[in-house]
# Entry
Amino acid sequence: MKTAGRWATILGCVLLLAAPTAGAMSVLPLELDRLIAGASTIVHVRCAGNAVQADPVVGVATVTTFVVLDRARGGGDNTFQLRQAGGEHHGVAVDFHLPNFRPGDEYVLFVPAVSRLGLASPVGLTQGVFGVTLRDGVREVGRGRDLARLLAGIKARTLPSGIAARMQAGQPAATAIPLADFMALVRARVESR
# Structure
């Protein structure tokens, strides 16, 4: 019996050491056309606020309400809600490492259809979220890393001029591109499907 107890202890230690890597996940980089294909809603929005509520299935859900500023795909409402698993409610904290949104900030979101549980997170998690910033009086969209991979497979001659100029050889890596050009490109890609 002592041997069985030792094996159980050893097995428990091995499982405990493996636990951090078991929960890790990798998300492959998605190109723009894959983001579009996975999204039933593509919107430029401003975050109006977040509300955390108890959920009988996932424990806690965060509902983020957005004001729709522009739309490339999806319904015509003036507001949009995203209900994601996770958050903190009455001392119960659940963190699925999903995108967070700050009230007042603007984003372009690529969101799939809502699941049967009433939940949805952006396509490719943070890959389906593009922050909108203002630089030199121009609204830009980006994710803080080179956007060349995002645009792979799109012929340069079909890119809006503001994007094409940033993607030329010899230019520094484009981590942000003009919002108007990005939305025009997304609309063109949506319409071509």
Observations:
- The first strand starts at residue 41 and ends at 55.
- Residues 3-23 have pLDDT under 50 and may be disordered.
- The chain is about 25% helix and 35% strand.
- The CA atoms of residues 47 and 66 lie 4 Å apart.
